[in-house]
Amino acid sequence: AQTVTQSQPEMSVQEAETVTLSCTYDTSESDYYLFWYKQPPSRQMILVIRQEAYKQQNATENRFSVNFQKAAKSFSLKISDSQLGDAAMYFCAYRSGGGADGLTFGKGTHLIIQP
Amino acid sequence: KAGVTQTPRYLIKTRGQQVTLSCSPISGHRSVSWYQQTPGQGLQFLFEYFSETQRNKGNFPGRFSGRQFSNSRSEMNVSTLELGDSALYLCASSLWSPDTQYFGPGTRLTVL
């Protein structure tokens, strides 16, 4: 079974600074997808960014970018110019390309933005 | 486009009762997945439906069941509720399976 590990239960960053959230995963598959989701206090799970394993280019969405290291099975999220609205729980998630088992989530990282 | 909607948003039940939660996917999405979120176990996959057929199932007891209708709306049912079933139940939809999943606001179930 696949596993997703987020080693940082909590991170704190000053507003306008850059922060990187870590995620590692374990899989024997070659075809899969990786995601970062954000869950603010409202509990609504919001998609931040998606990465296909077959793509070598790292995904970017505005201030959010990933560092995808397939050989190391690492998928970190970089948030640039942090804003107060970025404060939330961030979950890293894995899904098999074959679609079995739905999304496998990490335990999450609580991101605090200091004004 | 309207997002994923879930009803009800909050629910209080007692042990032994059963409950039905509803999820309406984004228009045009044919896949609906359900997840349970608890402080202890985190986010766990329950099951996925695609074109009215259960495509995948997580490691949950048979008390948890679901179905999908021809308009892609989905319901999940939990019978003989236990205290440990108290959780946030999240529904997610996608165009097809597997594809990027978009989540609803969740249903907060409290079992007393």
Report the average pLDDT across residues of chain B. 96
Q: Overall 3D geometry of chain A?
A: globular
Structural class of chain B, by secondary structure, is mainly beta
Largest sheet geometry of chain B: 7 strands, mixed
Largest interface: A-B, 25 and 24 residues
Name the assembly state.
Answer: heterodimer
Number of helical elements of chain B: 0
Strand content of chain A: over 45%
Q: Estimate percent helicity of chain B.
A: under 10%
| Helix count, DSSP H or I runs of 4 or more residues of chain A | 0
Characteristics:
heterodimer; A: 115 residues; mainly beta; 6-stranded mixed beta sheet; 4-stranded antiparallel beta sheet; 0% helix; 52% strand; B: 112 residues; 7-stranded mixed beta sheet; 11 strands
Question: How would you describe this structure to a colleague?
Answer:
- The complex is a heterodimer of chains A (115) and B (112).
- Chain A is mostly beta strands.
- In chain A, the strands form three sheets. In chain A, strands 2, 5, 6, 10, 11 and 12 form a six-stranded mixed β-sheet that branches.
- Chain A is globular and about 40 Å long.
- Chain A starts with a strand and ends with a strand.
- The relative contact order of chain A is 0.35.
- Chain B is mostly beta strands.
- Helices cover 0% and strands 54% of the residues of chain B.
- Chain B is built from no helices and eleven strands.
- In chain B, strands 2, 4, 5, 6, 9, 10 and 11 form a seven-stranded mixed β-sheet that branches. A four-stranded antiparallel β-sheet of chain B has the order 1-3-8-7, with no helix packed on it.
- In chain B, a hairpin with a 3-residue loop joins strand 4 and strand 5.
